[in-house]
Every structure is written in C-alpha cells, then in structure tokens.
Amino acid sequence: MKLATFFHGGTTRIGIVDGEEITDLSIAAPNLPREMMAFLEAGDAAMEAARQAATKGTHLSLSDVTLGPPVLKPRKVMAIGLNYADHVAESGQAAPAHQVWFSKAQTSIAGPHQEVLKPSVSDFLDYEAELCVVIGKRAKHVPKDQAHKVIAGYCCGNDVSVRDWQLRTPQFVLGKSFDTHAPIGPWITTHDEVGDPHTLDIKCFVNSEERQSSNTKHLIFDCYDQIAELSQAMTLEPGDVIFTGTPAGVGGAMDPMQFLKAGDVMRVEIEKLGAIENSVVDEQAEMLIQ
User: Fold this and answer.
1) How far apart are alpha carbons 287 and 164 in whole angstroms?
2) Residues with Cβ within 8 Å of residue 178, at least 6 apart in sequence
3) Are residues 25 and 81 in the same domain?
4) Which of 111, 176, 226, 251 fits as disulfide partner to 258, beta carbons 3.0 to 4.6 Å?
5) Residue 60's domain is classified under what CATH number?
6) What pTM, to 2 d.p., does this model score?
7) What is the pLDDT of residues 126-171, one digit of tens each?
C-alpha cells in the first residue's frame, strides 16, 4: 500500500494511493483514525482494514488534492551521517567505526512538493537525497534480525543542510533543523510492498541535472543495523522518521561548490517509492512571537 496524508476541501485526511487516484479512508473506513500517526499506532488491524477499504469508498484524483508530509509531526526525526562510502570519501573523513547520529527538528518536516526556505542567515544551502524509514511499532532493544518487524514503510527524503551552520560546531543539529529542511513523501510505501529496502536506486536532480545516483545496497550501516542501534538508546514509536544517509554528489563537495539558491528545484527519486520535488525560495526573515 501507499499511505498518504492529503489536504482537500479544507480538511486533512489520510488515504491510499493507487495510480493517479487516492482512496479517502475517512469515507471508505470511517472507523479508522484520520491522522497518520494515530493510524500507525492502531497497528496491524488498522493496516488490514485500510487494505480492504482500498477497493471501495471515495476515489479522488491526485491532481485534486495536495499531498502533505506522510507523517505531519513525527515525535522523532533521526538522521545518520557518513553512511555511504562514496559520501565519506567526498567529505574527506574516515569511515565511521560507529553510527553517527543527529536529530532534525519536528518543524523541519515539509511536504513532498512544499517550498523549501533558503535561510536569510546563510548562502550555503545543500541537498541530500535519502531513503527514509517510517516506524510502525513501539520498539526497544530490537536485534537486527527482528528490525524489519517494526517498519511501517519507506519514503523519499531530502536532508536539506545549511553547511556553515552544520560545520561550525561539532554537533550538526542546528545546521540540519532549519524550518522546511526535511521534505518527505510523497507517501509511505509499506514494507511488504517494498521487500528488501537495500536494493533501491536513489537519485537526486537539481534543475533537472543529475547530482546523485546510487543504490541503497551501498549503505554502510543498513536500515536494520540502524534500528538495532537506535533502539538500544531510545524507544522508537509509530510515526518516527529515520533518514538513512546520503550518497556522493552533494553540492558542498563539488569543485567548485554549488549551493542552492532561490528558484532551484530539487527532485529526489527512489525506486518503488516515487519522487518528491521541492522548489527553493528565499526566507522572509520576519520576527514571530505568538
């Protein structure tokens, strides 16, 4: 299944995408939760009810709805760094002996076609195409061979990075957490539909120019390694999003460096999962106190 969050008629709902249509689960299965995190928390029974509802109910054209982030406000957004050998090499660093983790703020989450803000405080905006894992079950101390059982599915992600803020301190969180700097989507493709997540082609384009091209088989620490490691430290919860690392080709490693500017369009494509495409716009730096 392809599970999506969408906006239509002034409301936010979840649905199942099939081709160019989406089944509105609020009508096809009105007893199910209408928000993705609550739906995932409802577990296997909710998943099965959604599958059965996919063949009935109201079908809307995808062109008539606006897709949002599949999970609007994940409790945790975790991201691993230096996880493709070619990206490690272009970064000029040694391969990590341990997984290198940082978090991205909840407010960095953006939709699959939402505009991404170029910060007023930096000209060093960069892209990072990534496979994202969406957690489907509460999990702690999960061994690698059981990790697949806690995954709801996968989506495309772009770990947008403000390089000068990222690198000016030993901790990456601020440089990775600017508003809109974690677009994800276009939907969650469930684990059973994807199969092995470590055989997927992954690409990134900027203004239609291919910048990154790799395959998830080149992950240093694969998706299951990552879940095993994270779950030793923290309880993973339904709706948590894990960014699994980016391959070589980022703008900051090019010669000369090529950072993003207003008007640029980033596109991340992953085999079996679809694509997200986000335009860059200048942030209007206005004080907000509410």
Assistant:
1) 22
2) 108, 117, 119, 160, 162, 165
3) no
4) 251
5) 2.30.30.230
6) 0.97
7) 999 999 999 999 999 999 999 999 999 999 999 999 999 999 999 9
